[in-house]
């Protein structure tokens, strides 16, 4: 017996942050999982459903394609989508085990509990990672991207340069030498997808689970999260308006994390004497 599609059960919120295709996907998946749409039943064509819901056809196509990728629908050319056969028993709720505990590992749970900040476009926020888009040279940026993309050719795809595009590494080495006095070779530079990615790589390369890390307090939450997720034990390095308190911790740290040029979040600069003290301590413990 044919099943009438329960269009009245699909309620979309056009004011929500979630895209309409994701809302439609979630609600259709729920109808399928609850057997409101049983196996073998046909869904309306994308053209008909988009008309019934007042949506663009591409929105419905995107929702159907996601359901097909996950095995809920069988779609074919010039045929209506059919609901696939589902297991007799529903799987446990996503993210939870049968015991009710989270399905995450201990490291995953720790990572999910780390603080993070996100903003909204057009709203000024005083924390890292949110530059002033109004003053960004988008026109010049677009021209440079277009020029480089045309020149890249065969090097644009593939994992040929794992640590970074060689011309970029060379340019960075020259810039660091001129602006910071850092003497380094291009092959010593590793390009990452942002600062947090770099912290994650450094934490896993430099520390083993249980190693001590001397971490600024207060300090940058992103670096703290990376070291904690890697299994390090954090030891507080106190910072105030006078600077850093280098009273040695009871356990010699494997890593010392500082932001000496402009401390986050206090903004103080480490004095020359404090820098020499820090270098001396690091050299003593390394020996």
Task: Write up this protein.
This protein has 287 residues and is α/β, with parallel strands linked by helices. Helices cover 38% and strands 10% of the residues. The protein contains nine helices and six strands. It has helices at 20-33, 46-53, 57-69, 106-112, 138-152, 166-180, 195-206, 221-229, 272-286; strands at residues 73-76, 79-83, 212-217, 233-240, 243-244, 255-257. A four-stranded mixed sheet has the order 5-4-3-6, covered by helices on one side. The chain has a two-stranded antiparallel sheet with strand order 1-2. It starts with 19 loop residues before the first helix and ends with a helix. The model has no long low-confidence stretch (mean pLDDT 85).
